[in-house]
Amino acid sequence: MATATKDEGKKRRSVVTAATRIKIMEAAERLFADRGIDGVALREIAAAAGQGNNTAVQYHFGTKERLVYDIFDYRTNLFEPLRQKMLDQAEEAGQLRNARVLLEVMCLPHLSIADENGAHPYSAFLAQYLTRSRAEGIKHPYDDPEVPVPALRRVRRLIVERVSYVPPDVLRLRVGLCKLMFLNMLMRRDSGFPMPDQDISLPSLVDDTLEQMTAALTAPCRHDGLNLFDGLSLPQLSVQPEAADRI
Question: What residues does each domain of the chain span?
Answer without folding.
Answer: 65-220
